[in-house]
Every structure is written in structure tokens, then in C-alpha cells.
């Protein structure tokens, strides 16, 4: 258990990455797999994780992220995107995937499907996207924890122009919208932030026992 706490104490939002140090395929795939396995409301997984490898594309994204160096200098750059097409048809497709994976008749899932569809129908399209967007942040937290345990540096990033990111990556046409980014790699020796003492409120200030 101490390994988890030590890893979380070790991690910080890396401000400067060493562009010469690269993640192994195994490290990157482990982090992506942890995101795929992340929790989400009803297990709906209303997301896609866009791994941007093309240098020219990353340069364009950096310009749309107010020239933050992490976009281009990190070994890997992932744009966590929300699906904008979570509707009854999407729920039906999800039910089919459950039935196929568990070898069961899809009719046995009708009650579960109706419950989810009811939740969606009571919300506007914007509210469904907002609800789905919150699930994306669960996957982000999972990725940060996994990266820390692998001693891979990471920086979650909200400081970017979502509309420009969506345009550059062609996300709208894919029924997606960017929500948050994750830069992954290894800290630069010149990143003074690495030496800062971690500051968190005391446990009795954030944990309430009733």
C-alpha cells in the first residue's frame, strides 16, 4: 500500500519534459489500457482517447494551447475526448457488447437498457454531454495514478482552445469533442517544479467521517 502513496507523492504536474527521453511501447500501452478499463457511469465509456503522434499536428496543437511546451516536448500526447453521440442507439450498441462478452441473451439486459435510456431522455443534449464529460475525468485520474506507479511523468492540461483542437483533429466529424489533455514522458533536469514540496490540505480538512 505504501507503494501507491509513495508514487502519488512522487508525481507532480510536469512543466518541462525532456524531448530526448521516450516512453516504451509497454509503458504507453499500459497507461492507455488503464484508461480503457477506467470506471464510468453505467459503464458507458463515453469517450475516445486520441493519441497524437504526428509532429506537425502537435505543433499546431501547441499553438492552440498558448504555446505550452508540453504539447510537443512530451514523449506522448493524448487528447481525452467526450463522445457527443450518447443516445438510445449508443446504449443499444453497449448492451450488445455486454451480451456478446458475457454470452447472454440481450433481452436479459432490457431493464438495464431502459434505465439508462430513461436517464438520457430526461436530460438535454447539452446535459448529456456534460454528464459524459465528467466520466472523461475519471479516466484522466486513472491514467495519472497508473503513470505515477510506472514512474512516468505526466501533466494534465485544460489550458487550450477546445474549438481549435477539435478543428485540427477533425473531432466534430467523429462525434467527439476535446475535454482535457495528458502529456506523458520524463521530466527535464531543468524543471524546477520537480523539487517543489507537494502541498495538500491535511487529511482532517478533506476527509469527513459521519
Determine the fraction of residues in helical runs and give it as a percent range: 40-55%
Looking across the biggest beta sheet, what order are the strands in? 1-2-4-3
Mean pLDDT: 97
Number of strands: 4
Question: Looking at the structure, what is the overall shape?
Answer: globular
Proportion of residues in extended strands: 5-15%
Number of helices: 9
Quaternary structure classification: single chain
Structural class: alpha+beta
Rounded Rg: 19 Å
Q: Give the biggest sheet.
A: 4 strands, antiparallel
- Residue windows where pLDDT falls under 50 for at least 5 positions: none
Helix-strand sequence: HHEHHEHHHEHEH
Distance between the termini: 25 Å
Structure, explained:
With 210 residues, the protein is of the alpha+beta class. It is 47% helix and 13% strand. The protein is built from nine helices and four strands, in the order ααβααβαααβαβα. A four-stranded antiparallel beta sheet has the order 1-2-4-3, sandwiched between helices. The radius of gyration is 19 Å and the shape is globular. The chain starts with a helix and ends with a helix.
Question: Keywords, please?
Answer:
4 strands; 210 residues; alpha+beta
